[in-house]
Amino acid sequence: DLAKMVANKLGIPFFFTDLSEAYRLRVADYMFSEYEKGRTPNPDILCNREIKFDAFLEKALELGAHRVATGHYCRTERTSDGVYRLMQGVDRNKDQSYFLCQLNQEQLSKAVFPIGELSKARVRELARQSGLPTSERKDSQGICFVGKVDLPVFLQQKLAPRKGNVVEIFHDGSSRVIGEHQGAHFYTIGQRKGLHIGGHANPLFVLSTDIETNTIYVGEGQDHPGLYHTCLAIQESDIHWIRPDLKMGPGQERDYRIRIRYRQPLQEGPLRHEEGMQIIFREPQRGITPGQFAAWYQGEELVGSGVIASRS
């Protein structure tokens, strides 16, 4: 086990705790529930909020720890009023603040991000200099604590296959059935692989899914207009402010920079607090996906986020 080897190398205590049940109840079951509804969740964000900075943090505090340090590329600062700020990592190419967009003030007060001021290259250099067995390890990918999996196969643990139609939407707005699929809940907006339908000059992309009719709508080419939208909505109950002191009241509008997926360049647009939160982008956005998280930034600081309910 690499974690134990690193602890031995550094001469620090190593403890093991089993949080698999908490993970199942608070992350995995949520994933299955969201996919069943035709939404695409982000388990990494849920894992940070529910496990690393909640269930795991609680265990660490029981052992006498004061804080939890993780390898996220981000930073925290504290204002003169004692408010914690979640800041982007110095290495913008590796910035992982987005994955922490659901943390609260209490969680940030117990968090330490020691590599947030460093580049990935510098972190590897320091690991090599220290002789750590993880110095050449590849970056982790896939689902938090699960790893890289074939998503449809993973989801079939709980969700049964169900045949339905694949409908192609043409650029002129017309449509026709072009094939079958094994379940709309196995597909996500913007997906290209896994459709297994030929006869097109350009790849097909999933434009939307309809769980009620078990239908997948697809379009040819990555520039298909059905992939692009300018507005998204977040339900009132799903609005989260890392900075409660910046919370917007009903009827307020404020400009922020927004991100709807990891490593996406920040996009400009206003937020309107009107029957939930409406985000209007200045430029059309590709693949806005219900179930994913939109996070908004003020300068380098991530100040709030919410689950995407719909797009238009």
What attributes characterize this protein structure?
single chain, 312 residues, alpha+beta, Rossmann fold, SH3 type barrels, Elongation Factor Tu (Ef-tu), domain 3, 21% helix, 29% strand
What's a concise summary of this model?
This protein has 312 residues and is an alpha+beta fold. 21% of the residues lie in helices and 29% in strands.
Instruction: Classify the secondary structure makeup into a structural class.
Output: alpha+beta
Largest sheet: 10 strands, antiparallel
Shape-level CATH architecture of the largest domain: 3-Layer(aba) Sandwich
Give unreliable regions as ranges.
none
Going by CATH, the homologous superfamily of the largest domain would be: HUPs
CATH C-level label of the largest domain: Alpha Beta
Give the count of structural domains: 3
Q: Can you tell me the overall shape?
A: globular
How would you state the average pLDDT, rounded?
Answer: 94
Question: So how many helices?
Answer: 6
Order of helices and strands: HHHEEEHEHHEEEEEEEEEEEE
The CATH topology annotation of the largest domain reads as: Rossmann fold
Estimated radius of gyration: 21 Å
Strand content: 25-35%
Strands, count: 16
Distance between the termini: 47 Å
Q: In which range does the helix fraction lie?
A: 10-25%
Please give a structural write-up.
- With 312 residues, the chain is an alpha+beta fold.
- It folds into three domains: 2-152, Rossmann fold; 160-221, Adenine nucleotide alpha hydrolases-like domains (SH3 type barrels, Roll), CATH 2.30.30.280; 227-311, Beta Barrel (Elongation Factor Tu (Ef-tu), domain 3).
- It is built from six helices and 16 strands.
- It has helices at residues 2-10, 20-36, 43-62, 105-109, 120-129, 151-155; strands at 68-69, 74-78, 84-88, 111-112, 164-169, 175-181, 204-210, 215-220, 228-234, 239-241, 253-259, 267-273, 277-286, 293-298, 301-307, 310-311.
- Strands 2, 3, 9, 10, 11, 12, 13, 14, 15 and 16 form a ten-stranded antiparallel beta sheet that branches.
- Strand 12 and strand 13 form a beta hairpin.
- The termini are far apart.
